[in-house]
Give the backbone structure.
Amino acid sequence: MDKFTIKRENFESALLRLKEGLAGYESASDPQLARDGIIQRFEFTCELAWKTTREWLLDQGHVELNSPKAVMRQAFADGLISDSDGWIGLLNDRNMTSHIYDENTADQIFRRIQTCYLPLFEGLLAKLI
């Protein structure tokens, strides 16, 4: 199996785990703990999304794509994604979850995962398959 296929399958698995977390959120006995787990799943899904996209772009002949934002800008230019602003927001939120933590920020990011970021991940995966 080539590097792209391995990364894509890992991204697909991570996205499935994120969806499972979101599906179980409403029935969770500890919603705050469930939210925090979903945010962690979002973090690794985000990492796999941009790294898989980078591998796809490298296979297309691109070079010098070393940052997540550069990768997603090129993916937009190549038509792989259609909402570059959404992806930049997603990457910014990913950085916030790693470096800053407070309840209000966590709640805001959690809501964006549910409403904005899940569809971005799903759309990217559909293009990569």
